[in-house]
Amino acid sequence: MNRKVTRIYFLCYQNRCRSQMAEAFATYYGGEHLFAESAGLESSDIHPLTIEAMKEVGIDISNNVSKKLNMKSFMAANAIVKLCEQVTEQCPIVPFQIMNVDWNIQDPLAIEGCGIDEVRKARDEIRQKVIDLLKGMNIPIA
């Protein structure tokens, strides 16, 4: 039996923190029912605090790479999740048949004097939003 896999594309400005976390959580919780990708309007190295915060919850993203928006992945998605206002304003128009989600989560790395606590707060918010999204899309949670 051929099972349909749901595709979710997470977008933020630089693909160095928020969208990386969302992709990792979606992959972790969605398992074989989901294919998650992330990208940014620009690419930047994944921030060490992002890697550290995810390791704390047992998810290693140290080998992930930052990617720029890819229109083939964008158009193949069942859902586009925009994690920040900058992406919402500058993102290509999401076609009608693709679920369009705006989370507008503040970039913890943009906070002056950002430390691990700010990244943890964003991580925890993103984890809950990913779980809620998967449940809302009827994707079994692993």
TrEMBL record:
It comes from Paenibacillus baimaensis. InterPro entries: Ptyr_pPase, Ptyr_pPase_sf. It comes from the Bacteria. SUPFAM superfamilies: Phosphotyrosine protein phosphatases I (SSF52788). PANTHER family: ARSENATE REDUCTASE. Keywords: Arsenical resistance. Residues 6-136 form the Phosphotyrosine protein phosphatase I domain. This is Arsenate reductase ArsC. The keyword S-adenosyl-L-methionine does not apply. Gene3D superfamilies: 3.40.50.2300.
